[in-house]
Specification:
The chain has about 375 residues and is of the alpha/beta class. Helices cover about 45% and strands about 15% of the residues. Strands 4, 7, 8, 9 and 10 form a five-stranded antiparallel β-sheet that branches. Strands 2-1-3 form a three-stranded parallel β-sheet. α6 packs across α7 and α7 packs parallel to α15.
Amino acid sequence: MEEKQKLKKAFVLLLVVLMLAGAFALTSCGKASPSTSAKKEVNVYNWGEYIDESIFADFEKETGIKVNYSTFQSNEEMYAAMKLGGSDYDVMIPSDYMIQRLISEDMVEKLDFKNIPNFSMISDEFKNPEYDPKNEYSVPYMWGTVGIIYNSALISEEITSWSALFDAQYTGQILMFNNPRDAVGIALKHLGYSLNTTNESEIKEAFTLLEQQKPILQAYVMDQIYDKLENNEAMIGPYYAGDYIVMRETNPDLVFVLPEEGSNVFADAMCIPKGATNKENAELFINFMTSTDVCIANMDMTGYISANGEAAAIYGEDLEPEDYIVQFPPANILAKCEPFLNLPEATLTLYDNLWVELKSITK
């Protein structure tokens, strides 16, 4: 009897060993799916100051997946990083025109929406956008506008036009975007042209205007604008509406205006780089980010407006009137605004060459 028991235990042990060996072979062979071989982590690449990082702990508690988070300061910086090693990231949050470019260059994965049921919470107005007409590659995150932020304690006149950024009376106190699409877009709008013009003479005219502006600038900036405007180190500069809401908490003298010539209205969306290691984890993260509670937390922190209609309505109820008009501009103001679109390769090359030339000019 005792011998039979020993034989039985040995047989069970052998079965366990064989099962473990089989499992190991399945997870380690080249045919394993990403979902079975992926680590319990997700690598997220986002704009600076554009998420409530406390939600990462909630996501990890809910899913067991750790969030590794890093930031970029412009779409162009993000694009360069994707070209160098896009598979280092699992989720990225670029803007509309850049997503259109990434799709055209086969740099993003199609999404499995079975893992993103909260997509149903996205307002219809943000679905099937021009940059992703079939909603195959992206899930909208936030939207907003670009305007002028100025210090009303240092500038007494009311600012209404992009012309203020080219006004010599503010020499040494003007900040400008440190990326070509936004900077050239401002010049184009000031000149009365479309943000998306492919007319070479119009683009060159815009760069000429930026060359004339350069001697009166204090600096080209991205997120550095926070310190400079909050601490009265500069008087005026262009930036995003949501960032203004955050800056004004520190410096209540700051004012935001959408210039009379019109501006850029943008949408940022979540997508997955081609070859991402943790694709299913990424889709779970996107789904989490699209839930109403998380959207409200992110709006509270960033000042931008979620594409989740329910979350946006709840958030808007508590806004002061002066904030509401900045974050939810009326239709007549938005009618003057344009989204950026992806430009033809020849136009992008022209932008790149002229931007390098502009930045090389010494004051």
